[in-house]
Every structure is written in structure tokens, then in C-alpha cells.
Amino acid sequence: MSKTLKLNIKTLRAQYLSGELTPSKLVEALSALIKQEDEHHIWIRRLSLDEMMVYADKIKDIDPASLPLYGIPFAIKDNIDLAGIPTTAGCPDYSYLPEKSATIVQKLIDAGAIPVGKTNLDQFATGLVGTRSPYGACKNSINPEFISGGSSAGSAVSVALGMASFSLGTDTAGSGRVPAAFNNLVGLKPTCGLLSTLGVVPACRTLDCVSIFALTAEDAAIVLDVAKGFDTEDPYSRREIASHKIEKNFTFGVPQENQLEFFDNSETKGLFNDAIKRMEAIGGKKVVIDFAPFLETARLLYEGPWLAERYAAIQSFIEKTPESLFPVTKQIISSASRFTAVDTYNAQYRLKALQRVNESIWNEIDILMTPTAGTIYTIKEVELDPVRTNSNLGYYTNFMNLLDLSAIAVPAGFQSDQLPFGVTLAAPAYGDKALLALGSRLHATLN
User: Fold this and answer.
1) Edge-to-edge strands of the sheet including 209-214?
2) How far is it between the farthest Cα atoms of the chain?
3) Does 282 have pLDDT greater than 50?
4) What is the pLDDT of residue 1?
5) What angle do CA 281, 285, 291 make, to 5 degrees?
6) How many CB atoms lie within 10 A of CB 16?
7) Mind listing the pLDDT tens digit for each residue in 82-136?
8) CA distance 393 to 412
């Protein structure tokens, strides 16, 4: 499929405008591919040809130029509602049938996009590995012995393997960035509240955001323009304000040498240094910063009472049917019971103090640049040590939403075994557009 049809938005749009391609032809080709054996454990629910054709038929007589996502296929993480298709959040016993789509899904469909299926995930979006699923461990798109990253596992792999032009994930602790890095994709973690989370099964409701996986930053920007917008029905939706700007000549912060972690990977340190040089080549000035406040904030997410928010999200379900949860997921979420209300307030006070420290750092830099993940693990390595490996993957990601940052994961080269490496660019809230533009420039230096 990917050899005969390029799924980047610009190419598909040109083919639709010229009449070379129609939505029904695209859907037929994609259906043939998606119906093949799911060796990577990408899907929880693939849409049938007839189901996809319903969406294709709705736009067949519409001028392709009138819809920004005309005929563009996309995949949906299965904790985000698509009307008439079950939502499982990676737990069969939790499954329900939504009558209407999540706000963001409906926006995309109204713009002409065609859903192709619901994707596999770490159960209840709890994990960065992609292996915590009763539907099977999602496999890396380049080497299936390695993890896909999670929790938005299938969403990333579906795009990487040419089954969708873009996909929706969610991101609370890194779920929209780690899978992007491990599958050579762009992963946008927007400002919290910029995209509606109405119709999304919550993990940590105060921190959740919907993320976008795409082949390029340009494609992610097109999707973001359609998807964003204030939603009066979503209590956590926020109105967009003037965005963080990044000038042509900019400063970028990197952690002190002794604060960088590559977890015994002999190659990723060199790849990160190469990315720093490319950032400098496009106009960036490197500034070494103290990364300690970011790391302390990150620890709050899984070592503090925010775990209780994950428990609250599925409280009635986990208390009635605890046996329905994947073992590691149950272990993590159930541990929330040890936190008290006093613990929660104390953690909030500490977070406020860390946020204030963090504010001063942005007086020195325009963006922060880190590895997206210091290393990548095999599925077997994760199975042998599920908590430690997952924790290591969150080293550079867990602080983002607690500090109200926007971020984009960008491909940054390959290890000698051809597994990809990525870096993350982060900025204060509403830096999404500027990060996409800069991410595009950085990505282009690889070509």
C-alpha cells in the first residue's frame, strides 16, 4: 500500500484536486491493507470497507477544495469515541457504544477526514510502552521485537505503516511523543485544553490532552488548525491566546551533561549531540540549563497523588471488577489508595513552587530541547521489568502537562540497527504553531 500511494496530506490533496484519486478508491485500497493479518497488534476495531465507505460517500460530490481534510484517512486511539463503534480503552469489560463522536473526531469528519479504525493502547492510557494490553503487545513498525511506545501505540504504528495519514492519540505523561520517536514520526502534544477532550476516556482529567501523530510537522499543523477550538461542553477547554513566538535566531535550552540520561544506550547520546548541531545550524544558540526542576516535577506524576486521579477516572469500574484490569495496570492504579487529601494538597503546593521556578527558565531560553526518550527497549525487556523500563521512558516527558507546556517530538536520526531516535522541542503554553514550524525546519535537516 505505502509503495503505491503516498498518504501525506499534500500528496493526497493534489490527487483529489486533479481527479486522479477519489475517496472511494482510497478507502478500497486501505481496506485491503488493513484487513490483512494484524501482526503488529495495531487495531482493536478495524472499520469494514462498508463502514469506511459511508464516510467516503458523504463527500464524494463535494468539491475537494472546500474541505481541508477531504478524503484524508485517520486512525483513532481507542479511548476516544467514534459514534457507533465500541470504545474499550484497552479493556474489553469496560467497552461501551458511544452514540456520538468525541468533539475532535467530529470536527475532523466534518472537515472531510475518513476514520479507518480504533487503535490499541496501554490499558486506560497507563503506560509508555504499548505492551499493557489484552489485545496484544503493539510491535514497533521497524523492528517488531521492540516496543512501539505507548500508550498511543497502535495510533503511531498505523501511520508509520501507511494505514493512515495521521492519527489521534492522547498524552498525559508522554503517550503522544514516545511512540512518535520509536516509529520515526512527528508527535504533537498540544497545549492542554487547546483540543477538546469531550468524548475521551480520562486518565488524569486535569492533565490529559489529545495528541496528533503525522508523517510531517506540516501535516500535523493542518490537522491542528481543524481540530483546535474552544468547546463549551468541555470544562477543561481553553480559549487560544497569543502564541509563544520563536524568532529566526533563537535560544534553546539543553540539560546539563550530568542530568542527561541514555540508560546505557551507547548510541543515543551521539544522536542527541548531532541534533544539537543541526539546531545550531538553523539559527539556534544552545544554552545549558539546570534540568532539576523539570525532573522533580516529573516525579510528582507517578510518585505523587496524581495517581489518585487515574483511580478516580475508573473508580466504579475498578472497584466492581478489579479482575478486568491488565495486571500491571491494576498494580499501578490501585496503588493510588495510599494517598490522602493532605498528600494531594502538599503535592499541589510543591507543584506551584516548581512552576514558579520553571517560569524563570523561560527568561533564558525560547525552547527546551531534550531526547524524547533516552533509549528503546525490546518487548521482552519490558515484560521482564515493566515498571522500571516504563519509568525510564518518562524521564524526559512526565513533566510537560504539569508545567503547562506545549511540545513536539521530531525524528532525529537512526541507530546503527535502524531503530529511530527522536528529540522533543517544548515551549510554554500556546507555543504549538511556533514549535511545528521549528520542528519542520529541524526535520528537514535530516533529508
Assistant:
1) 43-46, 114-119, 73-77, 166-171, 209-214, 186-189, 405-414, 420-428, 367-371, 250-255, 284-289
2) 63
3) yes
4) 37
5) 120
6) 22
7) 999 999 999 999 999 999 999 999 999 999 999 999 999 999 999 999 999 999 9
8) 17
- Residue-range domains of the chain with CATH: 1-246+369-447 (3.90.1300.10)
**Could you give the residue numbers annotated as active site?**
77, 151, 175
Residues 193-218 have pLDDT tens digits of 999 999 999 999 999 999 999 999 99
Distance CA 108, CA 228 (A): 10
